Amino acid sequence: MAISLAEVETAFQKFAVHGDTKATGKEMNGKNFAKICKDCHITDGKNVTTTDVDIVFSKVKAKSARVITFEQFNQALTELAPKRFKGKSKDEALQQLYGLLAGKEPANVGVTKVAKAAAVDRLTDTTKYTGSHKERFDDSGKGKGKAGREDIPDTSGYVAAYKGTGTYDEKVKDA
């Protein structure tokens, strides 16, 4: 069941460059170390928690460094293995840990899901608008543009916005 270090290194490199355009794949930051542990089920929330992962990360990295090399990554795994697989020998535990890592890639499929259509539809349904918001759309739900947003003064005639506009002539005609 021995898994070659090369397979583990491939996984390490894939996670090392994840989300970092400048990364070479030779070093891994703490965030991606936590991610590889989470995605490959090294953290199980019982024996190995995210705190353990952070502690081991800071233990193996160089004092001032913010990243770890593959060698240090290996060291970290050696520390985590007996915790994750209690009751196994160090080598056995490490092999099982390698088994979790081999052939893995960062799981970021579907991390950013498109907002639920129903919610957006509900919020953009102009028929449910009330008050001044309702004024901004015509009956078909199409926006009125500037006319729906601003009070455009009616400057026609002598008295602005006179309600009985255009009725004088009719009144005179009848008389």
Automatic annotation (TrEMBL):
Q: Which UniProt keywords apply?
A: Cytoplasm, Heme, Iron, Metal-binding
Give the chief site where it resides.
Answer: cytoplasm
Q: Where is this region: Disordered?
A: 130-160
| Domain Cytochrome c residue range list | 20-163
* GO molecular function terms noted in the UniProt entry: electron transfer activity; heme binding; metal ion binding; tubulin binding
Pfam families recorded: p25-alpha (PF05517)
InterPro entries, per the entry = Cyt_c-like_dom, EF-hand-dom_pair, TPP/p25
For this chain's UniProt record, which GO biological process terms are given? microtubule bundle formation; microtubule polymerization; positive regulation of protein polymerization
Regions of compositional bias (Basic and acidic residues) in chain numbering: 132-152
Which terms in the GO cellular component ontology are assigned? cytoplasm; microtubule
Q: Where does the UniProt annotation locate this protein?
A: Cytoplasm
Q: What family is this protein classified in?
A: Belongs to the TPPP family.
- Indicate what this protein is called per its UniProt record: Tubulin polymerization-promoting protein family member 2
**To which species is this protein native?**
Oryzias melastigma (Marine medaka)
